[in-house]
Design goal:
It is a single chain. This protein is an alpha/beta fold. The chain contains eight helices and ten strands. The chain has a ten-stranded mixed beta sheet with strand order 3-2-1-4-5-10-9-6-7-8, with helices on both faces. Helix 1 links the parallel strand 1 and strand 2. It starts with 7 loop residues before the first strand and ends in a 20-residue tail after the last strand.
């Protein structure tokens, strides 16, 4: 059953530590919104080629175990959050996109995109990020045992003099106020039109300073794209706000985790969407199990 809460936050659970970190972040977000947290495990199923019964039972047990572990993990740190769990069937990305019609946010965890996992993670994350009806947060944590408290050093807004920045600035200001963090207005390179000149970027930021005097702004101009900037400054803990009206290469933005002496900070990629919530008809989803 879908939640009747004004703010429903969904987290995709797959048994990984990264998913548990996403659940913890989602729990904090849920409490701040006064809503409900819904943990979803998707059993991969193809209606054209049904899974043998014995394999299905194994996958169902995996889902129950993963959800129970994630629920315990969440409640041990955020005991006040309201949590529901469900096991659904289908394509993971397609299921999450379908469920996003009734949520205010979907969270997905990532440990970074490695050479072998890029295709799998990139496909799911990019589909959800680009097609979901609600806001999407992709949480990259180098160490899934890190504290649930995430305080970004900067909220990063990729901006350009060649585009309309109003939507991304609105979302950035909201998240900056929420986290009480400064904004890094990143003048990114446009492949067709070039870079935003430093003096022009400074003028743009001065206008935003006047419009939002309670927010601290830092203009930074770059002759590279957002992904290159994030990789060059991977040690920072940042929240990056993306425009919901364009398609994004999420794999490139999330990047890889540095191993060894060089550290990688926490990263949250946030695609902001607001929408009128649909009222779900009774019994419209194939929930297999609720813990």
């Amino acid at each position: 059953m879908h939640s009747d809460q004004a703010d429903l936050v969904i987290v995709g659970i797959d048994g990984s530590r990264a998913a548990q970190s996403a659940a913890l972040w989602g729990a904090q977000e849920t409490v701040s919104r006064g809503g409900e947290l819904r943990l979803i495990y998707v059993v991969k199923a193809d209606l054209a080629n049904p899974m043998p019964a014995e394999f299905y039972r194994v996958e169902l047990d995996k889902g129950k175990t993963a959800l129970a572990a994630a629920r315990r993990h969440v409640l041990s740190s955020v005991p006040e959050v309201k949590v529901k769990t469900d096991i659904l069937q289908g394509n993971p990305a397609g299921v999450l996109v379908a469920e996003s019609r009734f949520a205010s946010m979907i969270c997905i965890g990532s440990n970074g995109i490695g050479r072998f996992s890029k295709a799998l993670f990139g496909s799911t994350a990019e589909t959800v990020a680009n097609d979901a009806a609600c806001s999407v947060a992709i949480i990259r944590t180098p160490d899934a045992t890190q504290s649930v408290d995430f305080q970004p050093q900067f909220v990063v807004a990729p901006v350009s003099v060649f585009t309309d920045n109003s939507e991304i600035i609105r979302a950035t200001v909201g998240r900056a106020r929420h986290h009480r963090a400064p904004v890094l207005a990143l003048g990114v390179y446009d492949n067709d039109l070039g870079a935003t000149p430093c003096d022009v970027l400074e003028e743009m930021v001065n206008e935003w300073r006047q419009d939002y005097p309670d927010v601290t702004w830092y203009p930074v101009s770059t002759k590279a794209g957002l992904d290159h900037f994030l990789h060059a400054h991977a040690e920072l803990s940042t929240m990056v706000i993306l425009n919901s009206s364009v398609k994004h290469n999420i794999s490139a933005i999330v990047g890889t985790i540095r191993r060894g002496p060089a550290t990688t900070g926490q990263l949250i990629v946030f695609i902001d969407r607001t929408h009128p919530r649909a009222v779900p008809p009774a019994g419209d989803e194939a929930a297999v199990s609720t813990l």
